[in-house]
């Protein structure tokens, strides 16, 4: 399912060696591995999952049906929320066999801490509240709770909010309740958020994949 943390660190070291040879190549995605030299971030996507390219992500956003108050203001919403640096999905969205199938996903968001200086956000706890509050206003029927579980990512304690909400998409035959685990950390000059989303109602649970993904994240500077 995953590579195992020891083997993953070996793979990361190999990828970083490649970056040292070609320093202009700031981001590597190879097989299951993602390495971002600028951010000092590396992780392994779940086995047999797919990296989603920018073009496909744009189409996914366009076909997502937002909450009633915001559906007609989609351009503003997507500009306000921005894009993740990386998006992974269980199913290949370009495979016709997967049309109409709900797919669990992992999205990785990164923002500079300095971007929040003017509004007085300095800690990851403050950032988590702000970012969660901002995003949930756009989705359908959200129910948010702060998780009592404290995870550890690459030796850094996390802040987690869980949001169950209604997913409605033009390519899906039905709407489903889904659960998004929003896991926040602070590292160096950046705030990170890892969104892990699946749906019991759609018959797509990915607890094991999510657990192994988090265990294999490496922050290397």
Supply the key terms.
four-stranded antiparallel beta sheet; Protein Transport Mog1p, Chain A; 5 helices; single chain; alpha+beta; TAT_signal; seven-stranded antiparallel beta sheet; signal; 221 residues; globular
Helical residue percent band = 25-40%
**Strand tally:** 13
Ends apart, CA distance between termini: 27 Å
The whole-number mean of residue pLDDT values reads: 85
Give the low-pLDDT segments: 1-5, 8-21
Largest sheet: 7 strands, antiparallel
Task: Provide the gyration radius in Å.
Answer: 17 Å
Strand content: 25-35%
Order of helices and strands, N to C?
HEEEEHHEEHEEEEEEHE
Quaternary form: single chain
**What is the domain total for the residues?**
1
Compact summary:
The protein has 5 helices and 13 strands. It is an alpha+beta fold and 221 residues long.
Give a written overview of the molecule.
The chain is α+β, with helices and mostly antiparallel strands. The chain has a single domain (49-207), classed as Protein Transport Mog1p, Chain A. 26% of the residues lie in helices and 31% in strands. It contains five helices and 13 strands. The chain has helices spanning 5-21, 54-63, 74-81, 124-136, 207-215; strands spanning 27-30, 33-36, 41-44, 50-51, 86-89, 105-112, 140-146, 152-153, 156-157, 159-167, 176-187, 190-198, 218-219. Strands 4-5-6-12-11-10-7 form a seven-stranded antiparallel sheet, with helices on one face. A hairpin with a 2-residue loop joins strand 1 (27-30) and strand 2. Mean pLDDT is 85; it is low at 1-5 and 8-21.
Question: Secondary-structure map with pairings?
Answer:
Layout: H1 5-21, E1 27-30, E2 33-36, E3 41-44, E4 50-51, H2 54-63, H3 74-81, E5 86-89, E6 105-112, H4 124-136, E7 140-146, E8 152-153, E9 156-157, E10 159-167, E11 176-187, E12 190-198, H5 207-215, E13 218-219
Antiparallel strand pairs: 1-2, 2-3, 3-13, 4-5, 5-6, 6-12, 7-10, 8-9, 10-11, 11-12
């Amino acid at each position: 399912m995953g590579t195992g943390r020891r083997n993953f660190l070996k793979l990361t070291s190999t990828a970083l060696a490649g970056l040292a040879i070609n320093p202009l190549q700031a981001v590597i995605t190879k097989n299951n591995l993602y390495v971002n030299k600028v951010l000092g971030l590396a992780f392994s996507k779940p086995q047999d999952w797919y990296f989603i390219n920018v073009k496909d992500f744009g189409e996914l956003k366009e076909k997502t049906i937002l909450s009633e108050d915001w559906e007609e203001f989609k351009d503003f919403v997507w500009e306000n929320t921005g894009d993740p640096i990386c998006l992974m999905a269980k199913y290949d969205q370009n495979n016709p066999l997967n049309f109409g199938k709900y797919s669990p996903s992992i999205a990785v968001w990164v923002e500079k801490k300095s971007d929040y200086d003017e509004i007085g956000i300095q800690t990851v706890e403050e950032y988590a509240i702000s970012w969660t509050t901002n995003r949930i206003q756009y989705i359908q029927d959200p129910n948010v709770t702060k998780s009592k579980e404290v995870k550890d990512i690459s030796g850094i304690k996390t802040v987690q909010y869980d949001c169950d909400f209604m997913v409605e998409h033009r390519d899906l035959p039905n709407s489903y309740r889904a659960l998004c685990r929003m896991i926040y950390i602070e590292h160096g000059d950046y705030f990170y958020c890892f969104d892990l989303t699946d749906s019991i109602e759609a018959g797509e649970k990915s607890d094991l994949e999510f657990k192994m993904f988090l265990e294999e994240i490496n922050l290397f500077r």
